[in-house]
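Possible race condition, two jobs.
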Amino acid sequence: EAEEIIRASVTRRLFEAVAKGDKTKVKKAIQEGADPHAVRADGMTALRVAADNGHIDIVRYLFMECGASMDDATAKRVSDFLVKKLFEAACIGDLTNVKWAIENGANLLAANDDGMTALHIAAEKGHANIVRYLVLEREFPINVKNDEGKTPYQLAAWNQHGAVLSFFILEYGFNPNVAEEDPVREDLVRSPSSEF
């Protein structure tokens, strides 16, 4: 009985640390015997709590290092969070967080309700550094069209973003006068509604 009380206490500490995003305390609780597969009375696992709070480093630790199982709802929550972070970073020109979201599994082909991908968003906002990264380092297709039929190049042109246009034409070799094949629209994955 004393052992059960100790285990319950350490598992409670695990859930508290997960909710706060304190990876050090999460690791300590696991080392002290907390079960990474434990389920609270409300049916939530530590992995799901981490996903719901956007603590991707803890999700990764519990899943990859502790072997916690990920159900479909948790996987979707993680995916939605990463795509949201990707879109937010593309919108404000934050290359560090664009890279972080992608390295942590954000789907590059995700599109918002308007068919806008991270590349569309970055091009529309004039963030040439992100456009360059997505196209050159991540090989993102530049001819993807949003729901209005606009490519990232067209959005940059409409908004008069010279640095983005220069990248497309001078660095990438894009010729706006040559029609390119339309990409397969089914490749885009709709993400949850967002303001981006």
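Job #2 (started ~2 s after job #1):
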Amino acid sequence: RRWGRALAAYPVLLIASVAAFSAVLASTIPAVATDEMAITSYAALALLHGINPYLQGATSGALSHYGLSDYYWTPLSTGGHVTWLSYPALSFLYLVPAVALGLQGRVILVAATVALMAAIYLRYRGYGSLSLIPLLIFLVDANVIYYPVGSVPDILWALPLGVSLALLRRHPRASAALYGISLAAKQIPAVIAPYL
């Protein structure tokens, strides 16, 4: 019985360790390390100032505002680089609370990563000692930690998609709503639609 309680603490310790490592790692990486994060954070800032971030030129100052090296800019085949916000809208709406509070956008990304790990654990917690295995599989790819800290916002669509898939059989309406939220952040989850 005591062994069971100790085993139940491992997932919590693992998730807490990922959060702590992310905080340490954040001190070695610029706060905004991708043009996507610079543009979406700047769009959130524009929205807070009452400016429609989809207007032409509304996010053109994003890269210089965050001091992002041109090494990280996405080039265009016609010359120049990307400076505008792309659809869908949820990609930047997620960041509005962080920007309003003066927090780095990657705080939202790391929190979403920790939330996804917690969701994975909650989904498989009934499997006793095996409940740790899905978390370990999740962490096989170190980019799961490095991407959110390094300003790659893919977790913003992966979190609702992952929870959607976990709820698919028991709560199909909630699953559908979360799938829609995932699509509202990025269109990549549309690839999964034929398999649902």
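Residues 139 and 145 are 8 Å apart (CA to CA).
Logs attached separately.
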